[in-house]
Write a sequence for this structure.
């Protein structure tokens, strides 16, 4: 029997990224939807042939036949809904970022471990085939010493077009339901910075999570952080490797995000894919000396959409006990680091 999955929320990302992907995974049955907008729930269930529609998360979690839940919600709901899902003994995948407070992150991980269920966070770039090629290349160069020491890393995000015509979701014209959950911010954070913190976590949590994935050997430390409006300049450190995180919203025809790792004798560059472009993967370039000549080589991964690979990996983890690359326990450090960034900014 396959893994029976329920969805909490079937809005824009719920449909175009997650329902689309989970409905294609062998061994997965999207068995139920919980959605506060009844007309939308009915229309989406008909399109994806989902048998059961529930009014809210409590009704869905009472369904003993559901093995796992995908929570495609604004991230401030992840703590409340995630806790309910895990307490019910069901596996969980939430959207990113994980949560806003590190103590909430640790609590969710503790519940998942106590209940013995899979808990994942939707950092789908860890499933991008190009990112995997880059991670393997970086690990190989660090182990072999071929390119010398890793001196610096520059990670940036200047936004741009993150969609590139992914299609239109089903809509119903129903008003957005009122949010019953109160946003939980770090206690040190001033209310004046709530909006900035939301923006930083929503955008740059991907950069932070990718750094932790590509450089897993040791924790990242925040040295300094500067903010001017929506622009950020953050200095991080991992041992003797200095890391800069830079970004500001700009207009572009494509998604403008990159991570470049500078070794003594070369570099590895990762240019992240436009998130909702189903035909796009990260572009990876390796610059080094070979046979006395300097050259740059592009690594070509298979074209497989990160969201679909993420869905397949989650089902594999729930159904067969496979290790999950985006497990919640791997994402706690992201929240801790981003809290420290805002302590440096001024709380």
């Amino acid at each position: 029997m396959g893994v029976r999955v329920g969805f909490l929320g079937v809005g824009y990302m719920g449909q175009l990224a997650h329902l689309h992907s989970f409905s294609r995974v062998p061994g997965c049955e999207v068995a139920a939807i919980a959605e506060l907008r009844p007309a939308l729930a009915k229309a989406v269930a008909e399109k994806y042939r989902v048998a059961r529609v529930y009014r809210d998360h409590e009704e869905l979690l009472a369904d003993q036949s559901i093995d796992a839940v995908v929570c495609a919600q604004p991230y401030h709901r992840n703590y409340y809904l995630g806790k309910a899902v895990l307490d019910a003994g069901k596996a969980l995948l939430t959207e990113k970022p994980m949560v806003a407070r590190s103590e909430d992150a640790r609590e969710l991980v503790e519940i998942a471990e106590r209940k013995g269920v899979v808990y994942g966070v939707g950092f789908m770039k860890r499933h991008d085939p190009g990112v995997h090629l880059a991670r393997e290349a970086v690990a190989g160069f660090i182990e072999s010493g071929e390119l010398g020491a890793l001196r610096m890393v520059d990670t940036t995000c200047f936004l741009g077009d993150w969609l590139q015509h992914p299609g239109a979701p089903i809509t119903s014209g129903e008003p957005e339901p009122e949010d019953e959950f109160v946003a939980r911010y770090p206690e040190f954070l001033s209310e004046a910075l709530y909006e900035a913190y939301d923006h930083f976590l929503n955008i740059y949590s991907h950069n932070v999570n990718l750094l932790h994935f590509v450089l897993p050997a040791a924790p990242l430390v925040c040295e300094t952080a500067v903010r001017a409006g929506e622009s950020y300049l953050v200095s991080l450190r991992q041992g003797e490797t200095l890391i800069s995180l830079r970004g500001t919203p700009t207009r572009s025809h494509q998604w403008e995000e990159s991570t470049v790792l500078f070794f003594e004798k070369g570099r590895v560059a990762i240019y992240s894919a436009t998130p909702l472009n189903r035909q796009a993967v990260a572009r990876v370039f390796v610059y080094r000396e070979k046979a006395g000549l300097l050259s740059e080589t592009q690594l070509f991964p298979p074209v497989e959409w990160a969201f679909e690979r993420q869905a397949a990996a989650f089902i594999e983890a729930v159904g067969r006990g496979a290790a999950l690359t985006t497990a919640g326990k791997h994402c706690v450090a992201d929240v801790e680091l981003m809290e420290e960034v805002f302590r440096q900014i001024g709380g």
